[in-house]
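Q: Could you fold this chain for me?
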Amino acid sequence: MGIRSSPSLKTNSLSIDSGPPGVIYEFLFASLMYAFISASLAELASAMPSSGGVYHFASVCGGRFGRLTGWFAGWWNYCGYQFGTASMSAICGKQLVTMYGLFHPEYEPQTWHALIGYLLVTWATCFVVLFFNRALPMIEKLSIVAVVGGVFVTIMVCAIMPSVKGKPYASNEFVWRKWENETGWTSNGFVFMAGCLNGAYGIGTPDVVTHLCEELPRPSRNVPKAILFQNLIGITTTLLFLITIFYALDDLDAVIGTSATFPLTEIYRQATGSAGGALGLIIVIFISSFVCTIAGYITCGRTLWAISRDDAVPFSKMLSRIHPTKRNPFNATLTCGVLCTLLSCIFVASTTAFNAFVGSFVIFSTLSYLAAILPHLLSRRSNVEPGEFWMGGWAGYAVHSVSCLYIMAFIVIFCFPFSLPVDAVSMNYASLITGGVSVFVTGWWLVKRGEYKGPQFVARDNALLAKDAL
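A: Sure. Below is the predicted structure, expressed as structure tokens.
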């Protein structure tokens, strides 16, 4: 599911306050750090194949504190995917609005216009996951072909069209060396670190396939492979995409100052030289975003189902049921769709508040990874039996240490305001959202800790894994 998420998310979350070199180098650094995180999660997934993902890993690696670490890991991971899926629905809604605006220069986008698109995409994608469970493997294969093919087409069009139109390409200085600090922060180093949020948003779901462990054959071997290919394909296609569009760019100020709800539209317009060409490329990226939203509901629903079957959430009995005919976590997935719809009410009331929720996706997801990897490191990796993928000797400890240090440092950095001066609109409320949700999770722990047991260990040769595998 996550193979296509990197090019889709990265292009949709594009921020160029530090100029093209900042975007490229920030993405490369974030990708390197997430390669360490991916390796850490792959080792854990190989040893403990479970749809609970990091929720299960944290519970087992935490030892005598496993119930507590697993509780927070599960909740943080679920919240990350819930807000991440909502952000993809919002991006798709904005793409639909910008398609109309391409051919209507007098059009002024309104919040409720994007809201309609948001709701349409939310329930269209949720409907697919709810009622076409058996078709999901085929949809997955077709969508990967469509997305990778779409990225290839986009790269080729943006690389060729400026020459066809007789327009000059951007200089090497502009693409690789011209750093621009438009944030108001005086430290370029801090701006670079904060800008890594772009890359983290694009590549930051390395655990997505772990939530399908119980639906895949030989998960101890195949899940680490899937995580590897997700990273390789995502990083490669995104990097090539970024380089191509920056060479096709001739007016950065027009992109920054565009009134379009989806800023990538202006880059496409400059690259192709026409509104029609831009529309074609927006349709390509919309397909990528749409299927990425489908993947979001698959993962989000299974994450909620995994923690609800251990009685970690309200209404656990209802949410933990598997539909008798659809053979999927129907109630949990439907609940995710309802919660995304409720988030749309916040979208209407305040886009700042909505952005605070969906923007905390990276923080929640990385917190859940930390809750699994850090206990694994501190226990000297002694609480689990090695799977088919296991980093032996000092290499494993080095990889896990880098993963934990990166997460702990950047969770703090990502909570700082993106620019100065700060007001109520430009403030970064990620720390408030993260803290508020964590307080709620702590309160619910105090209510349920007496009866909560946590997930049970799933052996790699468990017959259920093979029986239910697609």
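A (continued): The two ends are 14 Å apart (CA to CA).
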